[in-house]
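As a next step, we paired sequence with structure tokens, yielding the entry below.
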Amino acid sequence: MSVKALARSQDRALELPSLQNSERGHVEMIEKLTFLNLHTSEKDKEGNTALHLAAKHGHSPAVQVLLTQWQDINEMNENGETPFFLSVEGGHEECSKVLLTAGSDINIPNKLNISSLQIATRNGHASLVNFLLSENVDLHQKVEPKESPLHLAVINNHITVVNSLLSAQHDINILNQKQQTPLHVAADCGNVELVETLLKAGCDLKAVDKQGKTALAVASRSNHSLVVDMLIKAERYYAWREEHHESIGDPSTGFPLTFKQDHSLETRHIRTLLWGLAYHQLKANEWQRLARSWNFTDDQIRAIEAQWSGNESFREHGHRALLIWLHGTLMTQADPAKHLYEELVHAGFPKLAEKTRHFKSKTDLNSKKCVVS
């Protein structure tokens, strides 16, 4: 064997222990190899150096030792991944901090043009996402696939990460390849919690995707009735605030801002009244007439009607419309029962209005009896 061949053979023999020690985080062995100048910069078949492997597996002490002799901290493997990127992908916050302190570039994407923030967001590493945000990572880096960090957090149902991104001023109305906002995605999934979060943050309810559909139309198409009702509540509430030149925030009526179903004790009597009205008083097509008198749009009415369950669907549809009306009334009015009476008279239902007054008197009397007893 020639001298050169022997030298190459020796180098290869040293390469494997070097990479294995880094991958397994054997600090003492790495230090010995470094001291003897036997620690190589060779790579494995995926182009990973010892630093890549130590970072990938979150071995912070090994990374610190390796950094003392490393030239290019942002060196990429065959996939275009830096040691910092691999550390973030593995969810290794401490290791990521070590690498960033040593000068790693936080914004270098991999060959697929996926950023470290996208990886942390997709994997739901909430603490790591907060760390990246605190280090001024580029929130709106132009990367592929065209799913923003916020889209990825919504798709993967990481609500803590969604809140962190919104607090960091991530664009709430950013579009993906299908021209969908994060709200479109949450609505299509029927995710009540995420829809609530995005609605309370003041997202654009009028944005349309490539098919020209709003989030409301998307939820309606997917038969997510709870989300449909939430979106209609939000559309009506924010339209009212805009009309009255009020800023987005909790209403001043004492009721906290929410678009979810109401199960509170405070509204139980009025909700019972509305249930009776929908299921025992209103006839087919009458709820639409009432809804139009309350300025429900045609799109909103169609979205409610889309969840059809048979010939008696109109009762459920009417009940949902009445509860949506109640939500707006509670946010903007003091006395929903009185307001309901006046609205029924105005819409041409005087007999129903009298029945609601009778029902209110009866429930008030029962309430007083309960208090006395």
Notes: Residues 265-372 form a domain with the Death Domain, Fas fold (CATH 1.10.533.10). The CA atoms of residues 143 and 284 lie 52 Å apart. Residues 1-17, 19-27, 29-33, 361-373 have pLDDT under 50 and may be disordered.
